[in-house]
Amino acid sequence: MLSEGDVLNNRYKLLERIGSGGMSVVYKAQDLVLGRLVAVKMLHESFSGDADFLQRFRQEAYAAASLQHPNIVTVHDIGQDDGRQYIVMEYVEGQTLKEIVRQYNAQGKTMPVGRALDLSVQISDGIGYAHRAGLVHCDVKPQNVLVTRDDRIKVADFGIARAVSEASQHIDDNRVWGTPQYFSPEQAAGQSPTPASDVYAIGVMMFEMLTGRLPFEADSQAALALKHIQESPPHVIDYNPAVPEQLDLIVNKVLSKEAAGRYRTAGQLGRILSTYRQSAYAETDGISLPGEAITIVPGAVLGAPTSEQPTQIFPYPGTTVPGYGQDAATIKHPPPTAEAAQEGPDLLAIGLGLLALIALLGLIPLWYFVYVAYAG
């Protein structure tokens, strides 16, 4: 049994236990060779005798170590001490996304729309980078998303969940690894996860950030899995009227039952969200998306229009929401503002028009000279 002060392989001194889960225990540690703080994830002893898992764990850990992205926790080293496998990662000072959502819930509020969108873009960018490298996370959840004090995202646990999932298929078909609340329908049905499965999990996290609750809840894992497979997801806007309609449509698409109905990779989702954010910012003349958290009134009917409901942002004037095709409702230009109606004529356009007219009139003598020459 490890305790604070123990040293792994004469290099990593364990300072304090900072977390635990179904697969591992995480320690804050000191790298005695390089003199830096690291996080050591020590796998439970139950995995030490599983040769199939250990092989896949090493393969996935080596692949994860090759990921160098500002939104992914960097893997420094892997090894074993007294037969127990561990993985050494960069130490991130901050909170998990789950902790942040719970703090808003404790205050009776939801995360501001602008902040939720910024964090979602970073999450998508990090996981999208892994998808381009051929890696699927398999267990995307807010507990695996670290948020620094300046709101930078670090996605953790690439490799471990995948290794366990792969090994479990050869050991016991009844064992399902991952977190059921964030399962994609195909994972809930026992199928192998794909990049679109990670995209679905990002959608569940976006729903949770924007509403303070999960899209599906049940008393048992089996009932929860059936909901992911069979039930249509609710709309974010039904629980948080401050969410713009187009962002609600994007989240709803990400939560499609069929993988083909979602964005194919997290990178594609990240580009859609970035474009939406830029367009929303431009449409509001540089004013960011709603930044104040709304207060949840117990028993209130959310989603009903009220005089206090913020004006929704329509970021794509005259176009459809990306990824929705021609079936989506077309977003119209907003009505002109009073300031725009009072603007005078465009003097630059008038000046250019006069110059063009003068140039045209100046060609008349040339045309007359050519006519006379040929006529003669």
List keywords for this structure.
6-stranded antiparallel β-sheet, 14% strand, 3-stranded antiparallel β-sheet, Transferase(Phosphotransferase), domain 1, 376 residues, elongated, Phosphorylase Kinase, domain 1, alpha+beta, single chain
Describe the structure.
The protein is α+β, with helices and mostly antiparallel strands. The protein has two domains: 7-90, 2-Layer Sandwich (Phosphorylase Kinase, domain 1); 94-308, Transferase(Phosphotransferase), domain 1, CATH 1.10.510.10. Helices cover 39% and strands 14% of the residues. The chain is built from twelve helices and nine strands. The strands form two sheets. The chain has a six-stranded antiparallel β-sheet with strand order 1-2-3-4-6-5, covered by helices on one side. The protein has a three-stranded antiparallel β-sheet with strand order 7-8-9. A hairpin with a 2-residue loop joins strand 5 (75-81) and strand 6. Helix 3 runs antiparallel to helix 9. The longest helix has 20 residues, at 113-132. It is elongated.
Task: Summarize this entry quickly.
The protein is an alpha+beta fold.
Secondary structure topology:
Layout: E1 7-8, E2 12-20, E3 24-31, E4 36-43, H1 51-65, E5 75-81, E6 84-90, E7 94-96, H2 97-106, H3 113-132, E8 145-148, E9 153-155, H4 160-171, H5 185-188, H6 195-211, H7 221-230, H8 245-254, H9 266-283, H10 338-341, H11 347-362, H12 364-375
Antiparallel strand pairs: 1-2, 2-3, 3-4, 4-6, 5-6, 7-8, 8-9
Helix pairs in contact: 1-4, 3-6, 3-9
